[in-house]
Amino acid sequence: MKKIFDEVSVKSSREVTRLYSTSFYAGVQRLDKSIRDDVHAIYGFVRFADEIVDTFHDFDKAQLLSEFTKDTYAAIERKISLNPILNSFQHTVHKYQIDHDLIDQFLHSMEMDLAPVDYNPEKYKEYILGSAEVVGLMCLKVFVYGNEAEYQKLKPYAMTLGSAFQKINFLRDLKDDVQNLGRVYFPNIEDINNLSLEEKLEIENEIEKEFRYAYEGIQMLPKSSRFGVYLSYVYYSRLLKEIKNKTIQELMNNRISVSSNTKWYLFFKCYLRNSINLI
Q: In Å, what is the CA distance from 34 to each residue of 28, 223, 224, 243, 247?
């Protein structure tokens, strides 16, 4: 009956992905079937931790995150958890020998979200490393089926792509982060409401530079994961384009997103490019 419980755990992680992120779910569905559930397992884990610090305002977030952290390591040590999300995650950790340092760094960044932080360039890099880059590395372990040589070769590209995605998230979620959570991640900015056009352009140009570099790594991914990662890359590239067309005041008033029709158009465009090996 353990097999049934494991199946329930996998389905739970898959459902978390589907309900929380339609764009990421679409990308995962384009991965080879042999690795989809492992990526769902990673997403479920990071989504639950992020949910604790972002939305559970009526509860003791620090206590919840501490308990979640303890349960995570207990699940990894015991190779089982009655929390289905952690049960599927621990299975993926063992299957691909995911470095525990990556998990440590991620949970550290979640702890940083428990209270306002005065972000300088060092803290900014530290947060992005834990909240995004190491998540990309966990997924990379799955994409290369645990092959250490391939992992080391593609590691800098995966980290850069994770960094670019996170910086776009910062711009997209500016309204909620500032007004509801009291967070300003960009370093050395005294008043985000008065962010200059030059400062906004500097952030956007930095993201575009990271995207150009990360794309080289996407092209080197195994065929089993290349299309799915490329699709997410294209979705985020379009989101960046939408953000670039907005003023800082517009970003502060509305959460920018890509329409469903546009996502379908981008999907078919990516599908055609993949079919004729143009990725």
A: 11, 12, 8, 35, 43
Contact residues for 254 (Cβ-Cβ < 8 A; gap 6+): 175
Tell me which amino acid residue 178 is. V
User: How many Cα atoms within 13 Å fall on the side-chain side of residue 141?
Assistant: 20
Domain of residue 185 covers 2-275
Q: What's the rounded Cα separation, in Å, for the pair 226 and 154?
A: 12
Number of domains in the chain: 1
Residues in the chain: 279
Spell out the SS3 assignment of 6-42.
Answer: HHHHHHHHHHHHHHHCHHHHHHHHCCCHHHHHHHHHH
CATH of the domain at 198: 1.10.600.10
Q: Give CA separation, 260 vs 111, 165, 173, 265, 271, in Å.
A: 34, 19, 19, 9, 16
Strands (E), 162-216: none
pLDDT in the model for residue 180: 86
Cα separations in angstroms, 167 against 3, 66, 97, 161, 205: 39, 26, 28, 10, 11
Q: Out of 65-69, 142-146, 178-182, which region has the weakest mean confidence (pLDDT)?
A: 178-182
Enter the pTM of the model. Answer: 0.94
